[in-house]
Specification:
This protein is of the alpha/beta class. It folds into two domains: about 1-105 and about 130-160 and about 260-470, TIM Barrel (Alpha-Beta Barrel), CATH 3.20.20.80; about 475-550, Immunoglobulin-like (Sandwich). The chain has 14 helices and 22 strands. The strands form six sheets. An eight-stranded parallel barrel has the order 1-2-5-8-9-12-13-14. Strands 15-16-17-22-19-20 form a six-stranded antiparallel sheet. It is globular and about 75 Å long. The termini are far apart.
């Protein structure tokens, strides 16, 4: 009997997933809508852990050693992401920007630092910045991914690592001493002890502060020659240094290699890894060259250009919180990374705010974003790939997590599986591996109502710049109703939201946001209402109302 029930559940799950695959969302869900990065609604995934679209690329470079739990390649790839774009998965969530783990070729060998063998499935262990990791796919597959995203109104944010190479293994030699340092390890108690050091043992640190010219590593030259592209790479480098006049420093080489992806594929933005561990000059150079490359791509592809927004750069300054305003405090000095090319920083603070009353959170973030951070933004998150203390680790507050993440002023980052209650506590894992399981597609039928909640809120945010980038104002305390209004750059947008409402009949004050007689729609229930004496009356079985003008 138990086996029959399990079989039936498996069959239902399979049929549900297959129905999703056969349903392609309209491509105009987010395309051609006004977009600003301050309201970015971003989906972050690890390519290897999201969806396997091509099983023939699952093993490369003889990466066949047994690994610790969730520390080897699992098969996810570019084709798998593209498949989900085409199925409308991201459009259904209202996503307007897609961020995935670094795409460059990873070290070939495995490390074993006491946790069992580990391969570079996550993308942060670079071997060659000029090549795409074959476990993730080919250059053509990557190009197809970017183009498909753009066709669906989704911008691509590429994760880039400039601070360090991959670990040293039998197959992966250390880079030359004028490129990297291999000690001391960071102690994080000062600016110098955070920047002029290695993050962890056996993770060589790029000398981004060095102004000394260096030669290309011999192993890289030999690799390019073996692959038949040595002359092409050397010619491209010569053109770059001739155009820019940069000295041939480690930082300048890597900036060139990273920004080539912008020029060649039309990448819309960078998520920059380990920002506080490298020199600020590296980020100035990276943004300047990325902007140049983005403009080159736009000039060459006017028909594929989504909008007039400049190149976007978002930084991971680990443990930066929005309360710090424009500065990150090292203890002995403060650095304003917003002055070094960054439009936005990842905000590590929201998870600590998330259980406070809505009104307190929203007012705090509005005051900071409309005050000291005016003209800049933060990217809020509640779970991520390397934060061992996520909000709601046991997945007991999925609905509240959606409300907080998607309605708090600023940008929002869904970490893959937030919307489907993907398990964050995997038996047998060590460290951050527990955060990096394969996407739980099979659980969607069980969590369909939760996913629908994330979809409705996500589309509302994606459709309305005001949600993340507008001015916040409370309208009534009980029931809790607030407005968001955006009016800049010839764009005007306004919404009214009610939370923790009673089910059934509701009376919602809209203040002066909407005019008497104006017809509104509750995006959550689909109910249409009219404003009378500054209020609307509606009946729905939900405790949330998302009012927008028709």
């Amino acid at each position: 009997m138990k086996q029959s029930i399990l079989f039936l559940a498996s069959l239902i799950a399979t049929l549900f997933i297959q129905s999703c695959k056969n349903t392609k969302a309209p491509q105009d869900v987010t395309k051609n809508k006004p977009f600003v990065w301050e309201n970015a609604h971003m989906y972050f995934l690890l390519t290897d852990r999201f969806n396997n679209g091509n099983t023939t690329n699952d093993i490369n470079f003889n990466r066949t050693k047994e690994t610790a739990v969730l520390r080897g390649f699992k098969g996810g790839d570019f084709e798998g992401i593209t498949q989900k774009i085409n199925e409308g998965y991201f459009n259904d969530l209202g996503v307007n920007a897609l961020w995935f783990s670094p795409v460059v070729e990873q070290i070939h060998g495995a490390t074993n630092e006491g946790t069992g063998n580990t391969y570079g499935f996550h993308g942060y262990w670079t071997k060659d910045w000029t090549a795409i990791e074959p476990n993730f796919g080919t250059e053509d597959a990557f190009k197809k991914l970017v183009e498909t995203a753009h066709e669906n109104g989704i911008r691509i944010v590429m994760d880039v690592v400039l601070n360090h190479t991959g670990p040293v293994t039998e197959q992966d030699p250390v880079w030359p001493a004028d490129w990297v340092r291999t000690s001391p390890a960071c102690t994080y108690d000062s600016y110098e002890n955070t920047t002029a050091c290695t993050l962890v043992k056996n993770l060589p640190d790029i000398l981004t502060e060095s102004d000394k010219e260096v030669s290309l590593p011999h192993f890289l030259i030999e690799k390019w020659e073996k692959e038949g592209r040595l002359e092409e790479e050397l010619t491209s480098l010569e053109d770059y240094f001739s155009r820019t006049g940069y000295p041939k420093t480690p930082q300048a080489y890597i900036v060139k290699w990273l920004t080539d992806y912008v020029k060649d594929y039309g990448i819309d933005g960078f998520r920059v890894d380990t920002v506080k561990h490298a020199s600020e000059s590296a980020w100035d150079m990276l943004y300047e060259e990325a902007s140049w490359s983005f403009n080159q791509w736009k000039t060459s592809h006017p028909e594929k250009t989504l909008d007039s927004n400049p190149f976007y750069m978002m930084g991971e300054v680990y443990n930066y919180g929005i309360s710090g305003g424009r500065n990150y405090d090292f203890g002995d000095q403060k650095v304003d990374y917003y002055s070094h090319g960054f439009h936005s920083l990842i905000n590590f603070e929201l998870k600590y705010d998330a259980d406070r009353p809505y009104a307190e959170i929203f007012k705090k973030y509005d005051n900071l974003l409309q005050g000291p951070l005016k003209g800049k933004s933060v990217l809020n998150y509640l779970t991520s790939h390397d934060d061992g203390q996520p909000y709601d680790k046991l997945r007991e507050k999925g609905y509240r997590a959606a409300n907080i993440l998607l309605l708090t002023p600023g940008g929002s980052q869904i970490y893959y599986g937030d919307e489907t209650n993907r398990d964050l506590d995997i038996v047998g894992t060590e460290g951050d591996a527990t955060l990096r399981s394969f996407m739980n597609w099979e659980d969607i039928p069980t969590n369909e109502a939760l996913l629908k909640h994330w979809q409705i809120l996500g589309k509302f945010k994606g459709n309305h710049i005001a949600v993340g980038a507008g001015n916040h104002k409370d309208i009534t305390e009980f029931p809790y109703v607030f407005s968001r209004i955006y009016s800049q750059n010839n764009i005007t947008d306004q919404v009214v939201v009610g939370l923790d409402l009673t089910k059934g009949d509701k009376e919602i004050s809209v203040g002066t946001v909407f005019k008497n007689g104006q017809t509104l729609k509750d995006a959550y229930s689909g109910v249409t209402v009219q404003v009378r004496e500054g209020k609307v009356q509606l009946n729905s079985p939900h405790t949330i109302v998302l009012l927008e003008a028709l």
